[in-house]
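This protein record is not my work; I was only asked to verify it. Would you go through it and say whether the fold makes sense for this chain? Here is the record exactly as it was handed to me.
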Amino acid sequence: MDKLQVVGGKRLEGEIVISGAKNAALPILCAGLLTSGDLELSNVPRLHDVKTILKLLAQTGLKVTQDDEKVTLNGSAITTLEAPYELVKTMRASILVLGPLLARFGEAKVSLPGGCAIGSRPVDQHIKGLQALGADITIEGGYIHARCKKLKGARIRTDMITVTGTENLLMAATLADGETILENAAREPEVTDLANLLVAMGARIEGIGTDRLVIQGVAELHGARHAVISDRIEAATFLCAVAATGGDILLRNTRTDYFDVALDKLREIGLVMTMGPESIRAQMGGRPKPVSFRTTEYPGFPTDMQAQFMAVDTIASGSSRITETIFENRFMHVQEMNRLGASIQTEGNTAHVKGVDRLVGAPVMATDLRASASLVIAAMAAQGTTIIDRIYHLDRGYDRMEVKLSAVGADIVRIK
C-alpha cells in the first residue's frame, strides 16, 4: 500500500494547473448511458474514481475510448443493465448509473453503494424520486432493482438537499414522458455542469443553477462535446496549502465564481489573492489567522473543504470553531492532526481548534478523501518528517497531488 513521505517547512513557489472536477466528471460520464451517440469529453481528471466509473460503464457494454484527459463514450451497444457490488462497493457515486439505465432501457440493477466512511448518505431520496416517476423498485440481496416501461414526469421535492440525488433524478427525467419538476434541488456548480451537458445532448431543462429544475422529457438524446469544469475543491486545497506553508503560487485553469465563501475565508486567514480570468495568484507571508465556519449546502461553506481549513487553523494565531452539519463522521482526521501536535477538541458536530506555534512530523493515517488532503497540508506545515498511510483515499479525488506539490517546492514523495 502506497504512503506519502512529507518533510515540512518548505515554502511553495511556482504554478499549478488545476484538473477537471471529480464531482462533475463522475455524473457526466454516467450520462453516456443516456444516448447511442458519441459523448466527447475533455478535461477529465486522472483519478482512481474515474477509472472505477469507466470500468463500471464499460462492463455494461458502453464503449470507452480514453486518451489522457479526453474520453469518448458510445452507448450504442449496451447489453448489461447491472452495476455489480465489486465495483460499486468502493465508490458511492456508482449509484449515478441507476437513473440513466432505468430511463433509457426500462430496467436497472445496482448494488447499494460504498465509499468513504464519513456518514450514512442514504440513497432513499434517489429511490423515492424514481418511484415518483413511476418506477417499481425493490431492494434484495444488497441490490436495488428498478423497472419501468416508461418513466412519467412528476413533481418531486426531496426531503433533503442531495447532490447525487439531484443528478440521478435529473438524468432520468430527461427521457421521461412529460414535465418533471425537481424542487429542493442541489445548486452545486457540478450539478450545473451536468445540466449544461444534458442540454447540449438535446435535453430541455429550465432553472439551471437554481433549486427548482423543470425538465421537459424528450424521446431521445444525442451525442455532444463537453469540457468538464475545473475542480474548485482541488483549487481551494492548494490555496490552503500555501496559506499553511507560506509562498507564492499561481493556479491556472480555475475559476473564482463558484467558491466565493471559501475564498472569503482564505482572505480572513491572511492569504493575498489576485484573480485573473482563469487563474488565481496566492501569496502568504506571515502566520495564518484563525477562521471559524459552519459547513452547509452550496453556496455555503463546502463540507469537502472542512478538513483542509482545519489543518490551517491548527497553526493559526488564535482559536477557532468549526461546525460540521453535512456528514456525521467527518472529524476522523482530528485524532491524526493531534498526533502531529495540534490542539483540537470535538464536542458533537463542533471542533474547537487552538492554534499552536508548531506541528511536528509523525506517522499518521488517512481516513477518507478530504482528510488525506488535510494531513498533507498539516505535514507540509510541520517540522520534520511525516509518513501518511492509506493514501489510496487521496488518489480517489486528487490528480497526482504529490507531483503537483513537488513541482512548486514541497518535499513530498510517494513510497511504493
